[in-house]
Amino acid sequence: MNQPTPTPEAPAQRCGLIAIVGRPNVGKSTLLNALVGQKVSITSDKAQTTRHRITGVRTVEEAQFVFVDTPGFQTRHNAALNRNLNRTVHGVLSDVDVVLFVVEAGRFGIDDAKVLTLLPEDKPVVLIANKLDAVQRRTDLVPWLKSMQDRRNFSEFVPLSAKKEADVARLFKILKPYLPEQGWFYEEDALTDRSEKFLASEIIREKLFRLTGDELPYTSTVIIDKWEDEGELRRISASIVVERDAHKGMIIGQGGERLKRIGSEARQELEHLMDGRVFLELWVKVRSGWADTEEHLRTYGYE
Question: In the prediction, which pLDDT does 135 show?
Fold first, then answer.
């Protein structure tokens, strides 16, 4: 890529890849969405919500930040799905210029420690102490911070709340010097490298997890079966894939009410995201053992 010649009026362009890593449920996807300024990664209280490498892009002045949200490192199960998620994380870490290691402010458990041991030694690692708004007294963070510094020589320590715009703006300023001087990878207004079809399947899966709570095992996925554009209208047919008949019943709910609500909430969010009308049709299918079969994972779009 040809790099423009900098002038006194125009600083050299910067661009770099930034990985967002951490154990499940520390707020990685919420942070990515805040950094991009639009929802590109789904969020829920259920662990293992993010399953794919999701790229979010934000260009601020001469610097383009290319963020890669990763699945939380899986440390407890050895199913094919979990092995696939961990391969995704390792693949991301080999490519990036800087790593954001996200933990909850004031907390550091065994799963955080396992993730820390897997981070590359030859990359700058920025410690993100997220969910700062949940800490009652900031002075309590001083001994915790010292204990964190003893674990690794972090390049930066950034306490923040991903929900606060001022905190997110401050993070951009901190990260900018870590980006190499080179041309941008994407157009200035790009937000993600993912397709509308991918985002649709993820939004449906988010509503599925949020509306079933802990009842439904995380081994459920969403496949887009049909996508038709008719002017401003998008006709989408999607299948929710589960492993057991009992899971199918949980999703459909009494009289089909839960499935209707999943579809209604997903449709409303898709119409907002795509700025147009959406007709969404949902089906529930049982595919026993799909999450532990590499062939099924490839068929369902896992890298």
Answer: 85
The annotation status of 71 as a binding-site residue, yes or no, is yes
Tokens representing 48 are: 């293992």
Euclidean distance between CA atoms 243 and 255, whole angstroms: 21
Into how many domains does the chain fold? 2
Q: For 20-47, what is the mean pLDDT?
A: 75
Q: Is 37 left (phi over 0), alpha (psi -120 to 50) or beta?
A: left
Cα→Cα distances 219→47, 182, 294, 297, Å: 11, 41, 14, 11
225 and 295 in a common domain: yes
Q: Is 159 annotated as ligand-binding?
A: no
Do 26 and 160 belong to one domain?
yes
Residue 168 belongs to a domain with what CATH number? 3.40.50.300
140 is in an annotated binding site: no
User: What kind and span of H or E run contains 241?
Assistant: strand 233-242
Residue 137, domain member (yes or no): yes
Q: Which pLDDT value is given to residue 45? A: 43
Q: Would you say 301 is a known binding-site residue?
A: no
